[in-house]
Design brief:
The complex is a heterodimer of chains A (about 550) and B (about 350). With about 550 residues, chain A is α+β, with helices and mostly antiparallel strands. Chain A folds into three domains: about 10-105, Beta-Lactamase, CATH 3.30.450; about 115-290, 2-Layer Sandwich (Beta-Lactamase); about 310-535, 4-Layer Sandwich (Phosphatase 2c, domain 1), CATH 3.60.40.10. Helix content of chain A is about 30%, strand content about 25%. Chain A contains twelve helices and 26 strands. Chain A has helices at about 10-20, 55, 60-70, 105-135, 140-155, 195-200, 260-295, 350-370, 375-385, 465-470, 480-490, 500-515; strands at about 25, 35, 75-80, 85-90, 100-105, 160, 170-175, 180-185, 210, 230-235, 245-250, 310-315, 325-330, 340-345, 395-405, 410-415, 420-425, 430, 435, 450-455, 460-465, 470-475, 480, 520-525, 530-535, 545. With about 350 residues, chain B is α/β, with parallel strands linked by helices. Chain B has three domains: about 1-95, Methionine synthase domain (Methyltransferase, Methionine Synthase (B12-binding Domains), Chain A, domain 1), CATH 1.10.1240; about 95-230, 3-Layer(aba) Sandwich (Rossmann fold), CATH 3.40.50; about 235-360, Phycocyanins (Globin-like, Orthogonal Bundle), CATH 1.10.490.20. Chain B has helices at about 5-20, 25-40, 45-65, 70-85, 115-125, 140-145, 165-175, 190-195, 205-215, 240-245, 245-260, 270-295, 295-310, 320-330, 335-345, and strands at about 100-105, 130-135, 150-155, 180-185, 200. Chain B has a five-stranded parallel beta sheet, sandwiched between helices. Chain B is flat and about 65 Å long. Classes of the chains: A alpha+beta (about 550), B alpha/beta (about 350). The interface between A and B is large, with 55 and 57 residues.
Amino acid sequence: MHKKAPTTVDTSLDAAWASLPWPVLVVDRSGVIQAVSDTTRPILPGAQPGVPLREAAPTWLSDAHQAVVDGGEAVAASGTVDGREFDAKPSVLPGGGVAWCLVEDSARSLAAAQESLARERERTAFLAEASSVLGASLNIDRCMEATVQMAARYLADAAVLVAPPTGRRLPVVGSVSGGAAEHSSVNANPAEVAGLSEALRGFPPVPSRWIDPATVPDWLIPHNFTGPVGSVVITPLPGHGVPAGALVLLRRTSQAAFDDGEETLAHLFAARAGAALSAARLYAEQAEITKTLMRELLPPRLQCVHGIELAGGYRASEDHEVVGGDFYDVHPGSTPEEETLVVLGDVCGKGLDAAVLTGKIRNTLQALAPLARQHEGVLKLLNNALLSPEKSRFATLVMASVTRRDTKLQLRLTCAGHPPPLIVRNDGRVEEADTSGTLVGALPRFKARSFETSLAPGETCLLYTDGVTEARGGPLGTDMFGEERLKDAMKSCAGMPPEAVVERILMLTSEWVNQRTHDDIAVVAITAPHRTYLSAVDGRTAGRFTA
Amino acid sequence: MSANNTGTDHEALRDRLWEAVIDRDEYAAAAIVMGALDAGVAPEDVLLDVIARVQMKIGSEWAANRITVAQEHAATAINDRVIAGLSYHPKSRLEATRGRVTVACVDGEWHALPARLLAEVLRLRGWQVDFLGAQVPTPHLIAHLHLQRHEAVALSCMIPTRLPTAHAAITACRAAGVPVLAGGAAFGVDGRYAIQLGADAWAPDARAAAERLHEGLPPVRPAADHQPHDDLPHLADQEYTMVTRSAPQLIKATVAELEDRFPAMRSYTEQQRQHTIEDIGHIVDFLGAALYTDDDDLFTGFIAWTAEVLASRGVPASSLDPALDLLATQLKDFPRSRRMLQTAHSVLPAGLRSTPDPAAHA
């Protein structure tokens, strides 16, 4: 692109200009560059002798040149070249041309660089904060709040998040800059607002859309937003297969555009918010499914049934699970005179697989409960139901049939391969129920021997799984809790209400294992009520009771 | 009894409720509490000025050996049932008008009653309360927090040896974006451990906790440059880790040494021997908690309390002093442990420096 230099130019003078240590351009009256110092090239690479100035330099410089030529006065100018700040100082040459000396204003360039660095840092910090705040919670409400609060603080004067509709209602969360989040649920059609229903659909992706502030309905404006709405943009949140919602940003100014930096920032923020919201939505759906499926597997809440005091306690082996391979259930008699059946057991295995098997056994036993006058018969039927060629589904369990006779409880206990229940008498003696049987689900033949006893008021029968006695730990870390310690513990439980017995046994075992790994633990206490309520109470005096 | 109740009314109610629970008379206990509500005593006052105060007395009477452990548990269970009954009284049924708060005990903490009382008080003040009970494993707590939007978690911890677990729970709740209000004896009379372990607030009792929640806890702001161990720079010396990890060996060696030094111990029954092992286990547990918080008072406080409990049972706490000595010898390379064990000496009452007595754990 080297044009041939016009012959009128003195080449030796050109050489002199070229050797100047400062960026200098010599431009003739017609605006064509006559000479350039070498130091100009890094700043204006296109500036060559013979090239018109307006082609090689920014407009502010060519305009300034024209002004000097027209006005005849050497008026300096300043402006940026590739983001650097320059002052251009003219000297009018004898021939009418102008020598422009470019002086970089490094202080101003530095300030500008620092300003943009600070802005970038702020954006990075904002995105980092957005990531950690949004990543922290799997809760949809909290994610929505965090999204609008951060958006209102950094991207606009107020932000509103519209979640995908549930039924006919739109969940809406809004916040003004620095304010608290406002939740509302509005009965509105998203199609009323231009671009909103497209953004809510989540797919196909649509770009941010500036809409006319006059068309924004009141429900899209946070209550404590003051002043007129100047401009509004609707940004869809990308939801990765799940619609995540739309973010509406409101500004007081009427500037209906983002600059490049803002655009990128809003885009990155929307991506993070959308990912967090869709994760929270998936988690909520999964949690709902788990809750429904788990409801049948959770141990039931026990209370007083037909004058029989009952309490149960459960601790799954894994801290993050609420069910495991131990179970208990109570099937109250249809009348107070009929037997109430209490069952506690332990299936092979741990965790969810085991819990599913406990569900099957509990259902089977519920169906068989009316036959429980014959424990052995029920257990035989259960044994047959569980038998499989792989012998993979076996369980140990204990059945207790209980009836109230006056102040006492009549108790019939049968163990199937299970640790025998312990009975604590009022004098502190601890007896082991003399019952035994084979475990269920392992062998084709089933045999068991039952044991009958009665509980006087205040006495307790404890059903427990081997998670209690086989808990390893203690001060030395390796001892088993064992039957002797359990019997000792039961001695100190004489006369306690069943909740207290259960609490004490769980407390002692959990202290014993002291955060080490342990098996599932289940206990049920059956207690004859201490006293019988006789007279009405007037609310001021203690009632009269009999022991 | 009038609606503008006075302290004496509360005192009379306390006396009657105390009689009832110590007599294991649940129906009488329920009748007293329901009667007080009918007579116009505010449900919150019944919870805090009657039931909670009776519960405190149960604890102190047990420590003073005036009631048995069975009475203690039975009385606590009755109080618990009475609280459940109270929440169905028409006076204490009301519409929830405020946000959601979860009340839970730290894992390993089975003293649920103080947390239960707080849960009821917050319900009475209009909060939606989820009470998760005693011994809540941290993963359960966090999974629960993700399910609904929470204003705060009220975390209860009574036993100081659970403070490291409490720290993990506080950190996890805050990481899930939910601020934590800590309460319970374990956090110290001035709440010093609550602040140390990063809780957003601390309250000395249920009323203060309710007021603190009413003021609102500041939202949790993630601080990218802050790590949980920044709160506890002293953990860098690894003493806590080493002592807790080698606790079984420490205990075993200490018991063996004690038997060597005091021939009388060799004639202990198996049960007495077990009790000695458990006592030393507790000493090491509390030493661990004191190392975790770097607070000598936590350890010396426990030693003084133990000496008191033993004394009230007529048991000379004679193995305490030599046990401290033996632990100090084994932990000679651990400066903070040694400092704490030495300080603990000074709080033991004089006259404990005798040989262990076989009757000590009868």
